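User: Show me sequence and structure for the first protein, then do the same for the second.

Assistant: Starting with the first protein.
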Amino acid sequence: MSKLCQEYDLRGLRLRNRIVMAPMTRSRVPSTVPDALTAEYYRQRAGAGLIITEGAQVSEQARGYLFTPGMHTSAQVQGWKQVTEAVHAEGGAIFAQLWHVGRVAHCSVQPFDRAPVAPVAVAAAGVNAYGYREDGTPGQMPASTPRALETDEIPQITADFVAAARNAMDAGFDGVEIHGANGYLFEQFINAGLNTRDDRYGGPRIDNRLRLLRETVDAVSGAIGSQRTGVRVSPFNRGFDMPAFDGEAETWLAAVEALASRDLAYLHVSNREAMIANAGEDFVERFRRAWPDTMIVAGRYGPEPARSDLAAGLADLVAFGRPFLSNPDLVERLRNGWPLADADPATFYGGGAAGYTDYPTWEEALETA
């Protein structure tokens, strides 16, 4: 049997296989409260060894897009309970991804139409956010210019993540993933090309730029346990106007070394191709050696590269994104060598059941045919 389909012990949490459903924003929660359709979507994909949910904003300020779920109200917790119960009933495991978008937002989705917050008051050039147009209809608009967080405001960001992590555990999740990747708030602080602050949270010193992530990881771990806390990072990310900067490789190695001492559930690494393109295969191996525990790797994997990286020890678990959208039974398809269905990009974001919960399994497709 392929290593991809073998069981895995994640800090005492038994995973049925090493296939992870990657977090993917779907913008199908109009009220920010997960509902029965959300629960059905995740239930269908509970064959994954581990599901990591779409990003859930940790506060109203953390929100960047319309129709995304939150993890900061009692109603949202009750909505997420439907999801965790549905996944657990199918024998699955599920972590909640906790999210603050920082500057990747339009003011129309912020409380009282305020500017979003970021390390510095620099807009993300060429980046669109999903908000409300002047006529009140939803649509894509340029991200608003943020305001820079005051130093004494930053601990509240950490407190919001702690509260959201506790809410997630109350909702029945098996753990949480702190979203430190993909150009959102934590990465905005880490990136020296953007973060030009002159306080203890910025500037040229790597440890200053890592401070917010370290403090948040420590606080969340203290609240719910390090064995139930994961972190996602995306070294060399260029999305959402993230610039290259001097000392980039050293920064990310320092990040992984700092996190490695904290006995976490896992480190989830996206942008594997960008790591290779910018720093070479040697960097990927150094990064892997610096992390002693479970590593999840994502990066538009196909079955064979996933099996190869598992066999080489470059990953312990492999995260699949888009294939899970159109293949709710992805694990069985990979196990049996069945063809994969293509997803419809027109239904990635927004809408209802179409392109969300209506993709058939392989066996259902055969019956229909």
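Switching to the second protein now.
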Amino acid sequence: MNTAEQLRTAPVHKTASRDYSFDNIRTILITCVVLGHLLEICTPFPGLRLLYQTIYSFHVPVFIFISGYFARYNIKKIIFSWLCPFLVFQVLYITAQRLLGSSTPYQFTTPYWHLWFLVACIFYQLLIPAYDTASRTKQITAFVCTVVLALAVGFDETCSKYMTLSRFFTFQPWFLLGYYFRKHTTNRPAVFSSRHKALRTGILAGLLCAAIVAVYLCNFPNTVFYGSSPYASGVRSMLSRLTVMSISLIWIVFFVYTLRPLLQKRIPLLTALGQNTLSVYILHAVAIMVIDGKLPQLLSSFLSVIITTAGILLLFGNPLIGKIFRFLFSDRIPQMVLNTIKGKVH
């Protein structure tokens, strides 16, 4: 994304200096988002739990880290690029549920399923003036405070999906980490010598393997990875959340220091999809509804799940859909209306 909010991007400008690494990483992440949701309704297969929990140990934290990395305090953008999509699709998805027989009331305090991410990012961006500081000591203090809040919120049984408060606190450290990380780095990944690169890659690969083994051995319930439930509801304990957060941090480091340097160039299809993740993120829930209700045979095996994932990405992540979303959820339509009104007045 050119504007660099996590799930959306501005129109692509082809310049020699463009860094495509985050576009490519976003494609990996949105693929995992779609795949993870399909795994919830597919026919069980060997290794399903490990694959599912491994995906959930990193895809949201890394996505939010990237959101923080590119975040800017811009009220106009917050309103049109984040709040408007939430309001529109909250109504549309609730309407779809009601048409299917649900009695879900129209409301905007509990986001529909995956739309919680939009609400959390709205709050994160509104807090940027409070986060923003040039002092490294204050930055470290703020980050530590968000980690403490992420752990403490699990003790509050009233803080759950209402206004996505539980997830807001649980994932806030990754947004702040991304926001501060950009302040101390250049746009391009650091270049290391071959020896240092090999050493770094080896260390990170080892940590990553250890993280995946930890996911397998800990045998956590899936709710531990969602960040939306208090400890009393079965998330086990503060230690389990701290373990998952540690695993997520390892993944973030892996994506930033191992994958990103390898993905700096434009890659056919991969880069294009990474520039249109907003449409995939919001619309893939439609495909989930249809498949779960009418076409469960599409998810009868692991191979069919992979094929269905690819189909959803191509359907909702193609450049045409991406351009439509960027146009609809920008300030261009209100500006056009305003100009038309002014023209008629004069």
